[in-house]
Design goal:
Blueprint (H helix, E strand, L loop, with lengths): L1 H6 L3 H19 L5 H32 L10 H15 L7 H8 L2 H8 L4 H9 L6 H19 L5 H18 L5 H25 L4 H4 L7 H15 L7 H13 L3 H26 L24
Helix pairs in contact: 2-3, 3-4, 3-5, 4-7, 5-9, 6-10, 7-10, 8-9, 8-14, 9-10, 9-14, 10-12, 10-13, 12-14, 13-14
Length: about 300
Amino acid sequence: GTTITISSNHWMMAWTGLEINTLAIIPLISKSHHPRAIEAATKYFLTQAAASTLLLFSSMTNAWFTGQWDITQLTHPASCLLLTTAISIKLGLTPFHFWFPEVLQGSSLTTGLLLATLMKFPPTALFILTSSSLNPTLLTTMAIASAALGGWMGLNQTQIRKVLAFSSISHLGWMTIVILYNPKLTLLTFYLYCLMTSAIFLTLNTTKIMNLATMMTAWTKIPPLTATLMLTLLSLAGLPPLTGFLPKWLIIQELTKQEMTPVATTIALLSLLGLFFYLRLAYCATITLPPNSSNHMKQWQTNKSVRIPT
């Protein structure tokens, strides 16, 4: 499905690829037969089907007025607006983000990894192919809103999959803000984001971490892996010496070149919100307790009622 979408130059083929992708991931989400997983699969299917329909409607409107089915020849203003909205729903950009944290929370960690990385690739590729036709005002507004909401909503989460979902929304904001001016930079950001997110998801899957409480005792299982996890989390936050800082630096540089200094300043300040919850996760991964009150039982505390035989 991904290959069909990224290699097509006709809207019908792109739509077909997206639909194959959606139908392929649904059995993976609902594999566990848990009510939460079935709910996640239903939400995912309805959202993606609506977005695909909107995308098809946008390309048909363009073909009706211009006679063109070519992806790069999308010129009708209403079609451009509809396409921007359709791909934003598929990616989970604000204000169409509501489905993504819920779906990720209902999936297993391996399926969550696919949802956060591979499933985002075809819509991102379509964004890059049609970057000249997109609505700039709408895209910039949604990008800043995504960066703000991704940081703000991630602050209050204890479930790590939800934290990573909001982290994904925040990173999508960074990707889409620069797509009109430098699509190659968007692709670089996406690749590095996929690399770092894959590392985090695979580490969580190995150590069976699902929330902050279990993360605090994970260092007892595989200490080197949790140290690496801390570095990956800080890299995803975009701290200077680490890999994740590179795309943010280049994006701010590009926005400044385009004389969009206020936008660059705003999005840089909003990334500090995300930094706070990444630091909290890094704390929990290595120093066991962030500076807050904690009243839950530690995993290593033994049951006092058990008699030890003499």
